[in-house]
Write a structure and sequence with these properties.
Elements (H helix, E strand, L loop, with lengths): L10 H8 L10 E4 L4 E3 L13 E4 L2 H6 L3 E2 L12 H15 L6 H7 L4 H12 L3 H19 L4 H7 L5 H12 L3 H17 L1
Bound molecules: zinc ion.
């Protein structure tokens, strides 16, 4: 026998749903399991059975769980699905990776809270925004090391690492070589290749 998990809805939320209370509209959304649709508390649609109701903190979570927005109360009016949103965040990071990016600034840019942005990004991409940023910076650093004669400190600064020793440590951790060793290794291989 399958065990039915019972979810309890806070009484205050259930009351808001029953009374279509718009005062709760920014506080939560509710989905109806049997229809797969989610609504704002103020929605005038038919009152669902309480046991089929699921509460969501925001529209993203409802969308992520496969609920569709109600056509009547349009609960996702201002929000994109998490995947699309994460894509936009990545595209932004691809451009601004060299800036002094913090989770707070990113959240500001994307009109969200650091917590929500991080969580949503992680859910749809499997990594944090800052880990994506770090990878982007390292990729750019590799490119610079391969194609320019700029110093390691110069490159570190140019790709957004304010601290050169940190950049070197991180680079070594990811590639088993320091940036200088990496560059020498490549040049060495190339010299060998041309002499062959
Ligand atoms: Zn609705």
């Amino acid at each position: 026998m399958k065990t039915q998990k019972t979810f309890s809805i806070p009484a205050i939320y259930w009351k808001a749903i029953m009374e279509n209370d718009p005062a709760f509209d920014d506080q939560f959304f509710y989905g109806v399991q049997t229809t797969g649709i989610f609504c704002r508390p103020s929605c005038k649609s038919r009152l669902p059975n309480k046991e089929n109701v699921r509460i969501f903190k925001n529209a993203f979570i409802a969308l992520e769980q496969g609920y569709r927005p109600c056509k009547r109360c349009k609960p996702d009016g201002l929000k994109l699905p998490a995947e699309e949103w994460s894509q936009q965040i990545m595209e932004w990071l691809d451009i601004y990776f060299a800036e002094d990016v913090t989770l707070e600034k990113l959240a500001d840019t994307f009109h969200s809270s650091p917590y929500h942005l991080q969580r949503s990004f992680k859910r749809s991409t499997g990594r944090s925004p800052l880990s994506y940023l770090q990878q982007k910076r390292l990729e750019k650093a590799v490119q610079e090391l391969l194609t320019t004669n700029r110093s390691v400190a110069d490159i570190a600064g140019a790709v957004g690492f304010l601290n050169t020793p940190y950049f070197i440590t991180l680079f070594k951790k990811k590639t088993d070589q320091t940036p200088a060793q990496f560059r020498r290794g490549v040049n060495h291989n190339e010299a060998k290749r041309t002499s062959d």
